[in-house]
Amino acid sequence: MSTSTLISHFRQASKQALPKISSLLLAPTLLTRTASPLLISKRALTSTALKRISAAVPGVNPLRQYSTPSLTIQNEKTNVNQAPALATAAQDESMSESASPSEKQEKRISEIKDAKLIFNQAFKNVQDIHGRENMKFPKEIIWLMGAPGSGKGTHTPAILRARGITNPSISMSSLLATPECKELINKGMMVSDGKVVENLLHALLDCEPEVGVLVDGFPRSEVQVECLKLFHERMHELRKEFKHTPLKDFFPRPTFRICVLYVDEEISVSRQLMRGKLIQEHNAQVMRSGKGEIKEERVTDFDEMLIRARYQIFKDHYSCLLKLSKIFPFHLINAVGSIDSVMRIILKEFEYQSSLELEHDTYEAISHIPLATKIGIHARQDLIRRLEHYCETEPEIFSKAVRFIDQEVSPMIARHAISGQALVRSDNTILSDPKIVEVVISILSERGYAVTMDERVHETPKRVDPKTFEIILERSHVYALNVRFPQHHIQPLEQKF
């Protein structure tokens, strides 16, 4: 068959195939959330779509097929900032199976070198705009990731409350929804890691640095993980540079926390399908009544295959974050339970920890002082040991303490039984003996009372020395025991007429 005949046959097959290809590309199962020319390019075709095309048009045999469905799946909140990770997903997967350990190490070194170039250029671009002395980033930054359906939007306020953060959270999807980024997407191009980092640095500089900030959706790739490490190092460099200047308070020691909200795949699927169903019901009600606002219906809330592909993307991102778990505090939150139970876990996880938040020298200087939350762990055993010791080895002191309680403390406690507090004042000289005081407090503590003791010295003028005219004072000691116990509540009877 001649060349001209082949060309003629190919043109005829193409004319027959184009209408069918267009109808398949516009099918609901292939649409993503944002319509753009990117959707009709080859890279937007999944293996499922290509099989449909081949079946519909036998004469068309695509030259290149993408076997990774995740290449067409967009994140719940963003379709841009995960692009670098998605673009290399197929290559990374094939390499992990066939590459030797040395090749993997070389790839890792290459990624680190690329990250340094990307971060240094992005940081320089931002610094040229703001100035070196104005690179004042928040002291505490929480980097939040979450499985699809884990409730990031629901639980973010709880995380902010737990850490006392009043800055609005930074969503990477919102940062990358700029006209410049959208233009790149519309041209079928990806937003580079450098642009992602640069936009993030600008957003961090817009925050109040004293109260911290939460970043939702970063890092999402190997290169971004390396950039995060470099950013932490750069903040330490800035702190060292300005430490002995009037600006030192604006460059504190940085605190990075990695937080991941986790649910397993089946729960993720069921939650997203339920969310899609509820949104459809809501929108139908709005259409019928004309009241309320239409909510966005996400394609990924209706197709189980897409949902599972999104979950796989989350797992890939999580494996990147694990490399940070040995460097920064890593909070893995079980988000499977109810909203209230998950919030309790978050509040517990993000409790104040002085070893993480104080400067090293400051912490070392005060760390020997026991924590209030741990001071009572062995207090019960120590109390029993003290009482047994005095009863067996010093019975006279023990007897004096018991007698003092019977004669002076118990009557006052009985008199103030309803109030839950009794103040016992005594000038009994036996309380000048520290051992008796220790036994008195130990006995009352063992019986369930909370006791504090205060010693006061009263000076009373008695006479004047006729030679020196010095006023001679007489001193007396008064001991005050503040005894607290559970208050008894009396419910008043209602009068009936």
Automatic annotation (TrEMBL):
InterPro entries reported in the protein's UniProt record: Adenylat/UMP-CMP_kin, Adenylat_kinase_CS, P-loop_NTPase
Record has Hydrolase as a keyword: no
Domain of life: Eukaryota
Keywords tagged on the record: Kinase, Nucleotide-binding, Transferase
TM helices/strands, residue ranges: none
UniProt xrefs under Gene3D superfamilies: P-loop containing nucleotide triphosphate hydrolases
GO molecular function (one): ATP binding
Protein name as catalogued: Adenylate kinase
Organism: Linnemannia schmuckeri
